[in-house]
Write a structure and sequence with these properties.
The protein is an alpha/beta fold. The protein is 37% helix and 22% strand. It folds into three domains: 5-166, Methylthiotransferase, N-terminal domain (Rossmann fold); 169-408, tm_1862 like domain (pyruvate-formate lyase- activating enzyme, Alpha-Beta Horseshoe); 414-466, OB fold (Dihydrolipoamide Acetyltransferase, E2P). The strands form six sheets. Strands 3-2-4-5-6-7 form a six-stranded parallel sheet, with helices on both faces.
Length: 467
């Protein structure tokens, strides 16, 4: 693995913009306004990457459409975290043979985390001849060049070399919303959890310069953004590679001091690097949402060690208890894996007891999925699939009961919420803690903060009325 970080020079990015101009001129000469479709799988970091791909496409003269049928360019931005996600991508990729048959000039690309796996690119070369290009996350900044070569040379392009992790400032973005925005503050991961493929496909940790992040956040707020979510595989590691003395808590504090009416959130946090300083900073500023996603993965210290998580049960609990102490209103969510290789029934029950002790607002729950190329994929795993499913169902039942109890406690409370859209005939809003609220109101309220009195609750959402 190449661990060096490369900052893409302005001249290199200008070269990509020149490819954009060539592509736009090509379509103009054909008298065509081309269409492009980007399909995104996986995490918010992939969503942010897709916004950059759409930005490049717009600069190349493409209009963005919402389906692959009839599109001149189709990009599948993929996730490699779980086997099910990969199989779904291959299934959808195969189905594109039909759209390309009906629209022969269609160009199809696969990118994202899957594209960083050699086995995937080899499979595409051999079994998916209708795919015109594959590029890993390290080559996203070169997409105009890749597209131009496909159009001009009419040859398949594979940009999958183990390049050093890069940071490219200035790539245009077409954001999904003017109201809410993703802002990537760093890329890659240094943790090498034994079950996770991310460090192998996204590279080592590399932080953006704080002045670039702050400039982006200021521009978003000035443009009307009401929520900014900071992204990174482990945001708590921000700044370690810069050597400038600014850590994640410092960055968060600087963003909270930007003038304007907005909330800042972040994800994902690694418990090892979550500090009391971070929790104190969150508690200090009204503009920092009192919401924390802090994956614990297992309640067993032995399993955590086997996962290479760099903390134990007691350390995790001490941090959670402190965060709740300084932020009594904190909405806490987490990830948990059931059935990690070698997990015993007693160790599973330790996970259940941790959930009952912490009282999470909600959990993202997974049955262990072995990823080839990770240490956990070769670990002895004697627990039958049926037993893992039983444990998974029990965990979900325990958490669902807790979520329903917590949501019921919202009833009759009045909360300040950001009205962010519609669901059929009702408006939707989000509490500071990210809880979904549905209520009746005028469309003119979308994009504003409103006080909403909660009138009802389910396991997954709340209902309310304007206070």
């Amino acid at each position: 693995m190449n661990t060096k970080t490369t900052v893409i020079e302005k001249e290199e990015l200008e070269k990509q913009f020149s490819y954009c101009d060539k592509i736009a001129a090509f379509w103009q000469s054909e008298g065509i306004v081309p269409a492009a479709y980007v399909e995104t799988y996986g995490c918010q970091q992939n969503e942010a990457d897709s916004e950059k791909l759409r930005g490049y496409l717009a600069q190349c003269g493409y209009r963005i459409v919402q389906e692959a049928e009839g599109a001149d360019v189709v990009i599948m931005n993929t996730c490699a975290i779980r086997e099910h996600a990969e199989q779904r991508v291959f299934g959808n990729l195969g189905a594109l043979t039909h759209t390309k048959r009906r629209h022969p000039r269609q160009k199809i690309f696969l990118c994202g985390c899957m594209a960083g796996e050699t086995k995937v690119s080899d499979r595409i070369k051999k079994s998916y001849p209708h795919v015109d290009g594959v590029f890993s996350t390290h080559h996203l900044w070169q997409f105009p060049e890749i597209l131009w070569k496909v159009l001009n040379q009419k040859k398949r392009q594979f940009y999958i070399v183990d390049e050093p992790g890069s940071i490219a400032e200035g790539i245009p973005q077409v954001r999904d919303s003017k109201l809410k925005a993703w802002v990537s503050i760093m890329y890659g991961c240094n943790n090498f959890c034994t079950y996770c493929i991310v460090p192998y496909v996204r590279g080592r940790e590399r932080s953006r310069a704080p002045e670039d992040i702050l400039a982006e956040c200021r521009a978003l707020v000035e443009g009307g953004a009401k929520e900014i979510t900071l992204l990174g595989q482990n945001v708590n590691s921000y700044g370690k590679d810069l050597g400038g003395g600014m850590d994640f808590a410092d960055l968060l504090e600087a963003i909270a001091q930007i003038p304007g009416e907005f909330l800042v959130r972040f994800m994902t946090s690694h418990p090892r690097d979550a500090s009391f300083k971070l929790f104190d900073t969150m508690a200090k500023y009204d503009k920092i949402a009192k919401q924390l996603h802090l994956p614990f993965q297992s309640g067993s210290s032995r399993v955590l060690k086997a996962m290479n998580r760099h903390y134990d049960r007691e350390t995790y609990l001490s941090k959670v208890l402190y965060a709740k102490k300084v932020m009594p209103e904190l909405v806490l969510t987490s990830d948990v894996i059931v059935g990690f290789p070698g997990e015993t029934e007693e160790e599973f029950e330790e996970t259940i007891s941790l959930i009952q002790q912490v009282h999470y607002d909600s959990l993202f729950t997974f049955i262990f999925s072995p990823r080839p190329g990770t240490p956990a994929a070769t670990m002895e795993d004697p627990t039958p699939k049926e037993e893992k499913s039983r444990r998974f169902d029990k965990l979900c039942a325990v958490q669902n009961a807790i979520s329903e109890e917590i949501h019921n406690n919202y009833v009759n409370k009045t909360l300040r919420c950001l009205v962010d859209g519609k669901d059929k005939n009702l408006l939707t809003a989000r509490t500071e803690g990210g809880r979904l609220v549905r209520f009746a109101g005028c469309d003119s309220l979308i994009g504003t903060y409103q006080n909403i009195t909660i009138t009802g609750a389910t396991t997954w959402s709340l209902t309310g009325e304007l206070a």
